[in-house]
Design goal:
The structure is a homodimer.
Chain A lengths: L11 H16 L3 E2 H8 L3 H14 L2 E4 L12 E4 L5 E7 L3 E7 L5 E8 L6 H18 L7 E8 L2 E2 L5 E3 L11 H6 L6 E5 H12 L8 E6 L3 E7 L2 E2 L21 H9 L6 H8 L3 H25 L3 E5 L6 H15 L5 E4 L6 H18 L10
Parallel strand pairs in A: 4-7, 7-10, 11-14, 14-15
Antiparallel strand pairs in A: 1-3, 2-3, 4-5, 5-6, 8-9, 11-12, 12-13
Chain lengths: 377, 377
């Protein structure tokens, strides 16, 4: 934690008080001191104390009293989502997507560029830098306004932001993305595997929002998984949880071949789904064979964790109408209890939103101990 | 929670204070009030208050001042592990094992009876009752001295103590074990699947004591799994976590057949392991084939959760010397990172010890809100 500029210290108790006040304000409409004290359980004096401090730091703003107020008008406070900016980046095999959001995760600007899995590391990093620069400029934001950055990468990522292993983009193995991003933006940088962050996004504000235990399937040109256990992203001891796809018996390695076989020379997998939707029998058979293979690994995840929910995300989730029913039938075949299946509503943006969430978690973990980007103090 | 006799109420804060004092005393040698206040972070006045109350309830005892104390002698307090008794029962396909322990889980008496998977439900319940009665009598304990009971059963168990599904003992499906035990003992009764409780025992005081994420494999005539995630037993949404064995691709259903094939007509699987240990090539091949199948499901668990530890327990764990190395080689083959493998030291008692732990958790969860067995007040 040497990468956050330091500021004045708050006592631990005041940090916790400040955190509960900020949470109450972020989740609700503007609140008066009386309402804030009630929601946080703090004394009125402590609430006032915290509110004054947060106001001074620019994290909350004061509103005019509500119209029609009788007697002494009560001040109201509002969380200032625009006090800082967040950068979230998704580096996949086939695309780079960068987004700038406010402190509530509302997207202010985003840029997507297509990349080939076959380009080299240096060229990919240069495209990444361009994409970030373009995104910041489009949002009218300078790097020092970014409070925190979250980065999603294809492949396994270790705790220091290093790509340990990338099968889909071989030259990516060994890149230290955290170090690379620290040259672009001054705030803290966290890096995580893309499937894990897509799962985090669903748990944060997606279709898995109220679920404690979730298996998230990233269904696309590659298949991956992210796990939410007890409401939290499960990373595993070596940050390698959810990698069931590496096991041949799970069927994920061979699954896409059924789609490619149908395509012959074509390379837009969407065509198989379109044909299946139109009732083409060979396409329907190819999709079913694909699902039959995917379902073995998915069943292994379900039988292992017994989640309440399976979420389908990733590129193929746009074709969920031809995928979900066959998947449900296969899960019924293997699982003791088939969980509810839901389709992500994030389309291609889920991974980047998860990166934003990761960055926001970092903000929540650090800003209340007084360690804040300079622009925020 | 209608099954615990009620007593006087403590305020929530006092409950928490009492809990931290009890924990400090249970984990350490006898402590003075000054030492207790330091360890718990409570004020001296609160500590004294709690100690007085716990003394009155019989949960702690007061010791004579330490020998050689100068000046005003300081009273010392000790956790009274003998204030109550715990019953733990393991109901397997082939045996019933009951144990009575004190409040620290020290076994005072235990009884083991062999049962056949083929006997009917009524006869099995009668043998269970006999086993429990014998165990209590042998410990010189009457049922009303049992503060809490934990029951491990083969099969899936729901939250109300009902056996939802038992493949190995078909007549067992539908038995409500919690209701059955409430006729035997007055305190709270909790029932859980045997593999889950064996995992809990390892995490409590076995080889997984300091591990956050653990895959426990119950290797025996049947293969099962229990998962510790973030230091806690993972049950799943429908209490069906760890059931990867139901998936044919996991290999667990067919695995024991390699051992039976080698045995021909014999039924003591131990013979294969003995022969393998003696260098019999056909036995070694049979054991390797068994491990090869087990390892597919084990790898699925490891790849899913990325645990720091795999623990081998169950009946076959006594033959760990011929099992662990082949298993490690197979895990190396499939997993991205092979976790450390350890062998349970509990032998056939792990499941029952897990049942004791489950009962102790129930005691910790309830006794501090004043709801205690009559004998304890």
């Amino acid at each position: 934690m040497t990468d956050e500029p330091s500021g004045g210290d708050l006592s631990r108790l005041r940090q916790l008080n400040a955190l509960s006040v900020l949470r109450a304000l972020r989740d609700e409409r503007p609140l008066t001191l009386t309402e804030l004290a009630k929601r946080t359980g703090l004394s009125r004096a402590s609430t006032e104390d915290v509110a004054r401090e947060l106001l001074a730091r620019g994290w909350v703003s004061e509103l005019a009293p509500a119209v029609g107020t009788v007697g002494r008008p009560a001040r109201r406070y509002r969380f200032r989502a625009d006090a800082g900016r967040i950068l979230g980046v998704d580096i996949g095999g086939h695309k780079i997507l960068a987004m700038v959001t406010d402190l509530e995760g509302v997207v202010l600007n985003q840029t997507r560029v297509a990349v080939s899995p076959r380009i080299g590391r240096r060229e990919r990093l240069a495209m990444l830098d361009d994409c970030v620069t373009t995104t910041l400029a489009g949002a009218g934001v300078t790097p020092d306004q970014i409070w925190s950055t979250g980065v999603a990468s294809t492949g396994l990522v270790d705790g220091t932001g290093n790509v340990m292993l990338s099968d889909s983009v071989p030259e990516w193995t060994g890149v230290n993305l955290a170090a690379h991003f620290r040259r672009l933006v001054p705030g803290p940088v966290r890096v995580e595997n893309d499937c894990k962050l897509a799962a985090l996004a669903e748990s944060w504000r997606g279709v898995a929002r109220y679920a404690g235990n979730v298996v998230f399937l990233l269904a696309g040109l590659r298949t991956g998984a992210g796990l939410i256990i007890d409401g939290k992203l499960h990373r595993g001891f070596g940050n390698a949880a959810g990698e069931i796809g590496a096991l041949p018996a799970a069927g994920w390695l061979r699954a896409p071949q059924h789609l490619y076989d149908w395509l012959g020379g074509g390379d837009d997998v969407e065509d198989v789904f379109l044909a299946a939707r139109d009732g083409d029998r060979t396409a329907i058979r190819a999709v079913r064979a694909y699902i039959r293979d995917i379902a073995v690994g998915a069943s292994a995840l379900v039988l292992t964790l017994d989640p309440e929910l399976v979420v389908i995300g990733g590129g193929f989730s746009r074709s969920a109408d031809v995928l979900v029913e066959p998947l449900r039938r296969e899960l019924d075949r293997w699982c003791l209890r088939t969980p509810e299946i839901r389709v992500s509503g994030f389309g291609a943006e889920g991974v980047a939103l998860g990166a934003v969430r990761l960055a926001l978690e970092q903000v929540e973990a650090t800003r209340y101990d007084g360690k804040l980007p300079v622009s925020a103090i």
